[in-house]
C-alpha cells in the first residue's frame, strides 16, 4: 500500500471532520491540570490498598517491593503516557481522533474510542465492589475482603445503589461532582500519612518471613517474580489512563508540561501512594513482632493501628473519596458512546454497561484485581505500543487519519492482546501488560516497514495544521 495514495476528504467520517484542536490560549501549566488529575487517580484507595497483592509483593522484602514499584512508575511514565501526551500536546486533539493515524479513520471509531468507553464499566464495577466493601464493613461490623465469598446480601445492595447513583451522576450531575472532586482526594493522602506515622517505627524491623510463618502468604515469590507482579499490577491499572494521556496532553502548552505533568502526577504519585501503603503494612508487622496482626493491606490493618472507631471513620472517608472516580468512569463512557454510537440514547448504553458493572461487583469478579488489570493491560498495552511506534515512524508528528482500518495497527493490537491475556488463561507470562506493549510496538513497526499501512487521508483547515 502506498502511503501517498490520495484519498478523497469526503471519505472521513463526521466525528473526525467536526473535531477542533484545543487552542493554545485555553491551555495551562502542568501543575494546574495534568499532574493533579493524574495524582487523583493514584490517590484512589483501590490502587494503593491492594498493592501488597495478598502479601506477595512483600514476600521477598520491602526493598524489592519498592524497586518493583519504581520500575513500574518509570514504565507508566515513559512507555505508556509520554508519547500519547506529546501527541495530544502537538495536535490539541483528543484520543479518539489522534488514534486514527494508528488504527484508521474507520478503525479508530472502535479502537481506542469505543473500547475506552466499554472498559470504563469494568472500572465502575471495581469501584462499586471495593467502595461497597468498605461501607459494608463500616456499618455492619463485618470483615469482608476481596477474597471473601460473594455475593453477600448487604454488600450486593450497596453495589446496586453505588453503581446506579454513580452512573446517574455521571450522566446528569457531573458538574456537581467536579466541584468537590478537587478536594476529596486529599482525604486518602491524609489517612495514608496518619497510618505511616503510626507504623513507621516498625519498618526497620520488618521481616518478610513473618508473613510466611503467619500463613498470610500462601506462596512466597522470588525477587524477580515480585518485580514482575508489581509491573503487572501497576501498569495494568494505569494502561487506560496512559492512552488517555492524549486527552491530558491537549491541555498542555509544551513538552515540559507533558514531561513534568507525568513525572509528578504519575511517577511521584505512584511512589508516594503505593509506597506509603507498602511501608504501612511492613511497619505494622514490624511493630507487632510475633503477634501477627490481621490483614495484609493498609485498610485491613487500620483497626489494629488506630482502633476500631477511627478505622470505621477512615473506611467511610475512603469510600466517599472514591465516589467521584465512579462518576467520572460513567461520564467518560457516556462521551465515548455519544461519539461512537450517536443514535443510541446514552441512558440506554450507559444503563446496560452499569448492569454489567453491578454483576461484576456483586459476584466478586471485580475484586480479582490482578486478573482485571491483566485484561486492561492486554487491551491498552498494545494500543500504547503501536502509538509509540507510529510516533517514532512519523518523526514525532501526527500524520493525520489513515484510510479505513489501518492493518498495521490492528495486527499490532491483536497480537499484543493475545500475549497480554495469556496469564488469565493460566499461561505464565511475566509483566504481561509491559510485554503486550512491546509486542504492539514491534509488530506495528515491522508491519509499517513492509507496507501494511493504509494511506493517509488529506486534511484541510485546522485539522491540517495539527499534522505540522
TrEMBL record:
Biased composition (Polar residues): 1-10
Keywords: Membrane, Transmembrane, Transmembrane helix
GO cellular component, one term: plasma membrane
Residues covered by region (Disordered): 1-20
Transmembrane regions: 30-48, 60-81, 93-114, 152-171, 183-206, 226-250, 262-285, 313-334, 346-365, 371-393, 405-422, 428-447
InterPro entries noted in UniProt: CodB
GO molecular function terms noted in the UniProt entry: cytosine transmembrane transporter activity
UniProt-recorded name of the protein: Cytosine permease
Organism: Limisphaera ngatamarikiensis
The organism's taxonomic lineage, starting at the top: Bacteria, Pseudomonadati, Verrucomicrobiota, Verrucomicrobiia, Limisphaerales
